[in-house]
Amino acid sequence: MNIFKLVLGFKKRKMLAGVMPMVLSIEPTTSCNLRCPECLSGLRGFSRPTGMVELEMVENIMAQMGKWLVYVNLYFQGEPYLHKGMDDLVRECKKNGVYTSTSTNAHHLTPERSNDLVASGLDRLIISIDGTTQETYSAYRVGGSLEKVLEGTRNVLEARKSSGSSKPFVVWQFLVVKPNEHQVEDIKTLAKEYKVDEVVIKTAQLDDPHDDHPLLTSSPALNRYEKDAKSGKWNLRNPMKNECWRMWSGCVVTWDGKIVPCCFDKDATHEMGTANEIETVWAGKEYANFRQDIFSDRKAIKMCTNCSEGTKTYA
Question: Over the stretch 152-170, which tens digit does the pLDDT of each residue have?
């Protein structure tokens, strides 16, 4: 019934009384071992503090929201498996019967850590693998090792097999940038060799796309931007609608308990409240005003101008 009311309210552009989010992203940490050039974690560019979420806060969130949620993504910024208690965070979500996922660069997935990951009950594991050679991989994943990613993948798949479990569902996510755009078919072939469950091809979000940008792809099909013939400016390829289901159906909680409306609010500039009062914040006036801003003039909100929600680009 909650999901039905969310959809109905979205169509009517009004959050109905008593309706709660069905999706939640919780940030395990802002720390990361890599230095990816279009990522605040990689650039060490946050104005907000860096830290690790406490299990107690996740327990509190699930006590409030567990009955409403259908999906929890234990990821926002940073590398989740730098959090030593990551498996406990997963177990807390799974205790409430919620489908749980995370995203990782796979550098910390040793055989022992992979066994613990599988035992935690994680439903979906997204592994970032942005190249089929070290040269192309490290063009974006600066400081990273492709062999570590492949080794981590093998470790998880072997742990899953030896446990007799069907989980986690393992996804390779391939972020297309100029240095690796010629390897899209190669990554699909490699995925079959490793027997991962799915390959997702994702277009890159660039803060300042321009003609000489080192990551801007040449193929329109692999690019979320297009160049305006008159101004010469690169913009999202498709018109932006004044709506956002992602923001409407869920929210994000930072490691230190700030509620923000969307995963594109990477520096938590649109804080709506704190995690110890999600129900109150979700139904509050500030959130309602923000939703109306989305419906009236979404492109006026800076974090939305580089978002692909509602467009026809890959992701």
Answer: 999 999 999 999 999 999 9
Contact 83, 116 (CB under 8 A): no
Q: How far apart are CA 233 and CA 218, in angstroms?
A: 15
Q: Which residues pair with 37 in a beta bridge?
A: none
Q: Are 202 and 314 in contact (CB under 8 A)?
A: yes
H or E stretch at 252: strand 250-253
Tokens of 278: 């999600």
pTM of the model: 0.94
Closest CA to 106 of 65, 153, 66: 153
DSSP 253-282: E-TTSEEES-TT-TT--S--EEGGGHHHHH
Instruction: Give the C-alpha separation, 157 to 160, whole Å.
Output: 5
Structure-token match 């969307």, residue found: 262
Distance of CA 248 to the CA centre of its chain: 16
Q: How many CB atoms lie within 10 A of CB 135?
A: 11
Residue 110 CB neighbour total at 10 angstroms: 13
